[in-house]
Fold each of these.
Amino acid sequence: MTLWNAVLLAAIACLALKGIGYLVPPSVLEAPRPARISDLLTVALLAALVAVQTFASGQDIVVDARVPAVLVAAGLLWMKQSFLVVVFAAAAVAALLRLLGVAA
Amino acid sequence: MAEASIDSAEQVRNARREAIGVALATSAYGISYGALAVAAGLDIWQTCVLSLVMFTGGSQFAFVGVVAAGGVAALPSAIASAVLLGARNIAYGIRMSPVIGSGFWRRAGAAHFTIDETVAVSLAQTDRRARLVGFWVTGIGIYIGWNLSTLLGGILGDVLGDPKTWGLDAAAAAAFLALIWPRIKQRQAIAVAVGAAFVAAVLTPVVIPGMPVLIAAVVAVVVGWFNWFSGPKEKTA
């Protein structure tokens, strides 16, 4: 398999996955149970992504500069700061800690 | 009546402002994707095709991450990781389908823009029109910004060095936290978020990349099925 084959195959597969959800008839979500589950699914997926983005390095769990950065982000969110402020502050905290050699 | 429409216009304005903020910040860490992809051995065209066609950040990072670690021999698992991570967009599509409405081209366009950020911004709104504005402004904004920053990151990759130096990995984590923040007000959502984060972290060393996030989704299915942790105040869904 060439790199190009893999790029195109993966890209088209991901594009197709996005379309599948729209083919499910909306009436499926009218009952309370499926509606509740589909709402909670988006919460679960985002929460899992937060965990993986914060602690995963390949298949290892590590505690590095991302952890204090995410804690600062949480504090700023608590103070109702905007998305932009939160994301840039997190990047700045991680970059600074690494620059100072305090965290990996 | 007049009061209701003023309120709605206000909500639409808020949704637009929020969408632009999310689009700008997300686009900024597209630079990190572009730089990582080129460092992993993709050429600039392959890097850009993934942003244009795949257009789902988690899968793109997973793909180039696996290629960087394993080279050409790892291509099948690179594809598998991208697809596994992209599978969450099925859940997002089911949820967004009734919000988007009818019309083939509108739905096809919406499907391509169905990613973490657009769904999160849209569902954080309560007004119907604000949900639509939030979705489309975020989607179009990120599509333009993400593809431009991918190109920029790919070109500048060698100059920038390791994206971690700039804290771009922490930016991605903070962005997901900011996206989930407005959604975790009720006890049930908080329970699901904590449970899913725990499951994903515990499974990371055990299963291949992409799987922890998907398996964590089971937490939502179980809690939602049995309606556990539903607060006494929870009347509206």
Amino acid sequence: MSENILEIKNLKVMFGKSIAIHDISLKVPKGGIVTVIGSNGAGKSTTLNAMMSIVKKTAGTVFFNGEDITNEPTQNIVQKGIALAPEGRHLFPYLTVQKNLILGATQRKDKDGIARDMEFVFELFPILKDRLKQKAGTMSGGQQQMLAIARALMADPKLLCLDEPSLGLAPVVIDDIGEKIREINKTRGTSILLVEQNVHLAFGTAQYCYALQVGNVVAEGTTEAIRSDDVVKRAYFGG
Amino acid sequence: MKKTGFAASIPFIVLLVLFAGLPLVLNSRTWIDLFVTIVFNMVGAVSLRLILLSGNLSFAQGAFMGVGAYTAGMLAVHLGLPMWLTIPLGAVMATIIGLITGWPFARLKTVYFSMGTMFMGQALMLFVSAWKKAGGAMGLSRIPALGAALKGVAEGIGIKNYQAAYFVILLLAIFSLVVMYRFEHCRVGTTLRALAQSEEVAASIGVNPTYYRLLAVGVACFFIGLMGGVQAHYMGTISYSSYGMNMTLWLIMYMMIGGSGKFIGPMIGAILISIVQGIANLMTSLSGSSNSAGFVAFSRWLGENSAYTPFLTAAVLLVVAYLLPTGLVGIPDTIRENKAKRADKKEIAAMTQKGGEA
């Protein structure tokens, strides 16, 4: 067993001849919240998708809990304990909230555990309980994002990956989401890998931060350190 | 699920009573043949919809019924195996071939899956047509009849042989439909629907698309193979041509006209269109005992023009597609929606009037 729940080493991803990720290495400590920030096209989502074997890795290795999962298919990775709430809150819009949640638990057989986690996500997001029979596609953006996170939680992950949960949401809703992420981390001890463009949400939530730029890690450190880092300032705030 | 429990099961109970009761009264061979055809078509159309749940339209269902029929028929004719073995083996064979051929196709999506299965089905039946042991182009005949095997039982109860055969088929069909209904309404069904909506998202939450697609194909092929096997023994003679593209297209037609949104949709479609298809036959046979000259003339006219049935069905399909995009089972919902729309319009009209006065 290692200290880190997730370790990505020298990941490289190419789409045809174009390089999406040049060389990315990152670690998520057990029980920690780590964020990956960067602008459009920096390779944030691709990193997550490659890690989950949703897109093909050109090179590099991924370790989860000290185990090599580089070449595992997605369903095995989910079963081992990584869940992804994908970018743009990809739900099943024509299925009810309840069915979306149940689908999150596809890989699980423990009925009691599923029921317990269902209760947990209702406590976390009470609105979902009211909307149980509603089609997911008819809810507001913020509610859909909550459902996306809740669905990922239904897999009872040890590591929860969130891909831009702030996308298209109002600032007040974003604050709310940030709070919920910390709550999940605190009450369940779930490690969290948060990919974000919204640095306020990222810095407000995470303890450690990686900054990406065109497929490379350009800076890393504790959020306090990164906040004052010149590279990041230049990349983000035009300073 | 808006309706739960008893209310949702009423249509099924009505169908069950009709299909168990009517053949006791309408017991001529022509009527029973029609009932048997309807039952086969119902199971076939439902099995097709099962695959469609995962977002793919299979064009090989007719051929898999043929696989079941030929397996059962050949085992009985060449090896002399008893029916209670040949019929299930037909279903198993259809499943095996369905899974083997489905393996490469499970990776295909939508129209490519349809094209793949279409050629697959054609190829299967061409193979059968060229196989001497399978009777070749002449078809396979002298398959032991289900009715004759049930002679003792039928005489005991006081019904005709073919009637007894019908009830055996009905029992098998009910079994098939119940299993497929359960299959759709458990977690697997939800997963299949999720796959249909977005394979990428489903995969990202840990669903193995190939596994679930194959599962649907396997279950669907099993039951249509079962029907094929029993059909071989009911008819006594089978021909590869009756399991070709035509059969599949009819199954698709039943499903679309009945409506693919609900489990009962393909069943309703199969009942109505099978009656339309079989009406000429039925009328001709009934007119033999009729005294009305008009009736005889009409049924003769129908018989002479039965080749036009596909046109009639196509017309029905066009009307349904235009007026009821969700099929015949969508009628209650459409009425409800229209009522709500009219009520809304009235309310808006009332409000604007009030606004005008103020």
Amino acid sequence: MIPGVHADFSQDNGWTFLVKAVLILVFLLTSVLVAIWFERKVVGRMQVRPGPNVHGPFGLLQSLADAMKLLLKEDMTVTAADKVVYLLAPMISVFCSLLVFAVVPFGPEVRLPFTDWSTPAQLTDFPVAVLYVLACASVGVYGIVLGGWSSGSTYPLLGSVRSTAQVISYELAMGLSLVSVFILAGTMSTSSIVNEQTGRWFFIPLLPAFVIYVISMIGETNRLPFDLPEAEGELVSGYMTEYSSMKFAWFFLAEYINMLNVSAVCVTLFLGGWRAPWPLSAINDGMLNTGWWPLLWFLVKVWLLMFVFVWVRGTLLRLRYDQFMVFGWKVLIPAALGWLVVLSVVQYVRIGDGVSQTTLIGVLVAIGVVVVATVMFWPSKKVAPAAPPPAEFDAFAGGFPVPPMPGQELPPSPRARRRPVTVSVDAADGADADSDPQEGTR
Amino acid sequence: MTNPYVPVLVLMAVAAVLALGGVGASAVIGPKRYNRAKLEAYECGIMPTPHAVGGGRLPIKYYLVAMTFIVFDIEVVFLYPWAVNFAYLAAYGLIAALTFLALITVPFVYEWRRGGFDWV
């Protein structure tokens, strides 16, 4: 037994590790193929169109066909690129995204059929497993930065700095929301956190942290409505603009694996991991929480979160970049910090002896009053000073049409002096036609 | 008992094989047709802007985000050990952590009021 870790890996050896590692990779690659199909199908249905339906039953082989096509395309290296970094960046991206699942528990101890050999359905676990997950996610950002920088092109560079600023901003909110899980669980090992959720899943007592995590996990994976690095209207395709063939495929794969990663971490930390949902968990003294059943519950929960990703994408519009950053820094992080203070005080009072329920509620009410008072009496923003008079502006400086700078004003259009076009229809008729378009056709 | 980090190394090796193998395979299988325009930087079909010497400049805002990120990332990392040992550290840990949070809030509020988070 590893100290501080609930799962027992004592029967595992080198071959087990290799088999499990290969199984994780196979699971991730097939899941990504299904996820792409799933996303296109669900978004298609949300937009009242069928989605992919040609290749294979229900179009299931569509993403496999896309992957094969990408593999057979020309592998280009743009002239302006920094060759070595350009080659390494997509590999770093996909490499880091593949590592997270090493500590995700798919289930408890499972027994291989026809043998008496049992092993946890998890590659490994150690006392700082969640920290390892965050480390993998952070190093994965290097793929994006280096990919955009080494392309030697403007759009990828802008996309990569945007993406980096976004991912690190939302990583903070994510990290802060995880602190409350550690306070409640008292450990960072994933199997132990799942074990601590035997009675209640953490998303119930930690609802604010759960909400913050779900929002920041969408920001962390650059998904709509937070997919600003790939805002097509502004940046073509962001940091992967100059990539083709398998290098592009690796970036694409890394994005979808990251979606699976954050979903799996969310399931492990907040949604009870592999545990069966309540009515099912009571059947036959927890029969559905043993053996191979937990794999089913784990996958159902992960795919539920994947559906949330697609649902959000089908529903919400892309944010403007400044709104997005303000939301991260001014809403999510203060909310996460405030929740952390509240939770730590409540938890201290709860585990400390000699404190009654009344005191607990009193303290909570007092904190609520303080928060409301702060919000109410927070000094409002000063009125902006009057704008200086518009400066001279030459609309054709240097022979090219240029936009006005702040403080400058466009000269009135020469067309503004023209007499407005009047419609030669009787006023009464026109009003009638406006009020009811069907009236005129009668 | 095996070191629990050994499986991570195994997974790293398998992942590295996949990452390298994919790119290598496409380099071998894919066609190679030279075209000067194809290898130029993409800029909506116009002649690409010459790349700035030394990578060019980026808006100062990104540096501000990076610096603020470091402050708060370190804060979060300091909070983890306290959170894990919350029950053992009890009152001492709670007061220390809350003081730490209060101290970090001061520069946060300062940056907020000075417009450090306004992306305009």
Amino acid sequence: MTDATAGGTKGGRKDPVTLFERHRAEMLRARRGTTILLGVLFVGFTLWSAWISNFTPQRLAEGLPRIFEYFQTITPALEWDKLFVGRDASGDAVPGSITFWYTDFWKYMELLGVTILMALTATMLGAGAAFLMCFPAARNLTPNYPVYWITRRFMEFCRGVPEILFALVFVFMVGIGPLAGVLAIAVHTAGALGKLFAEVNENASLKPVDGIAAVGGTWAERMLLGVFPQVAPNLISYGLLRFEINVRSSAIVGFVGAGGIGQELNRTISFYSDDRVLAVLILVVVTVTLIDLLSERVRERFIGTEST
Amino acid sequence: MALSLTQDQITEVRASHPDAFPDRAQAIRRWVPWAIALAYLLWSLSFFEFGKLLESSDRVLRLLAAFVTWEDMATWNYGRIYAGILETLGMAFLGTLLGAVGSLFVGFLAARNVVRLAAPRHAVRRFLDIFRGIDQVVWALVFVRAVGLGPLAGVMAIFISDLGTLSKLFSEAIENVDKKEIEGIRATGAGPLKVICYGYLPQVAPVMLSQTLYFFESATRTATILGVVGAGGIGMIIIERFRATLYDQVAFVVLNVLIVVAIIDWLSGRLRSTLIGR
């Protein structure tokens, strides 16, 4: 009570609460224009995008139950008592058992193997190309500006165009099969890794480079002996990281006919809606997760041993 | 001071720097991984019939020529192309927005310091792992089967995979908040909702905003691909014109997409620095 009267008698000017409130109101008023503008833009964009993508309540009400229905149809009808029953004498699997669900298990495994090898080959090819491009694309190492500019733009093109479009083009060029996928992923990898490698190079110390230049080393020797030993652990780590990403993409490029598990996945999703879809999906997710874990371990080891 | 080195000095230096001057066994051991990698690469490439590249060379040449020589530009349906690009942007925006709003709730459910019970938290996290583990394109294919061809499938695909990734990032941000502020709000007798509103949100909002903007950028890229499997947007136009062998138009559309993506990146960078002030 005394506080309140004291505050009242002292007047508004020195009262901290009034001061604070006045200051806050001023700040809000100053920012009101931007806030309103951003708000209106945001609401407008939301409404427009909802309209353009048919995101209406009635479309959703129609679609949502169908999503759940679809997930029901791709769930296998497993029965507990028959779950681990193998094939019978005539070689047929019993409905409700895992063997029945995964009838094509070995075919999937083979395709998954192809997918992983596709990713591995593509990563190596792409990393090789990126390695060649990363020195001219590093601002501090490039022999001259036009070379730098051209390499940079070329790499931007390589990583800007989605893999699946490259895959489309390569499928057209070399026919359906893993080669198209490998080439597509390799091109994209060259662009993406080239940029990362070049950034690593830009942070490398120039002293060894000057040293090699002083004893008369050529540009190639300066790069290979002066820069490469400094950046090698980083390059390998980025390469492995890219391998993880490429395993995912090599499962995707198959959608347009570029080989691997993606081709099978596309076929099962497009032509059947039964438990086969979930069977392939589970295998893909498990494989991708395992590769991630494995490559993480390898990466840690590499960085650990190289830096000590 | 001797300007030339004696043989003794050289051996001494060699012995004291084994890393720089490895003996033969070490040198071989160092090259083994590279040799294995190279052998694998050659082995795997030997499976591919590179002859095909040469065989189809005139088809390839025609394709490449069509990419750079644009003919009958007046007849190209520009309206549909730009409508497709706008549709792609709309899909990316709505998908990311829904994903971010969903993640706001799911992120709290998956944060260790908000939901103390382990069981529900782990259940939520495993679901997020599944959402994240399946690629966006596969989700798109699944949703095309479920809700039909068109942008709605793309929005759903972006929503689901963003929900998986953003929730994880949000929950990590929430787990890293400063506890003192939360305690302060709780000490005033605020309920759980008010603790979240005034304790957690002000701390995590900048992180969330900037991550959401990054995801919008990446969604504009992937939304292009989603159309290739039938989920609406510019991808559908690309694949339709590719199948119709209108390669010059494909090149034009892809070029436009690249430009739009670059503009979106720049805009979102500007917006990020205005909102977060960094």
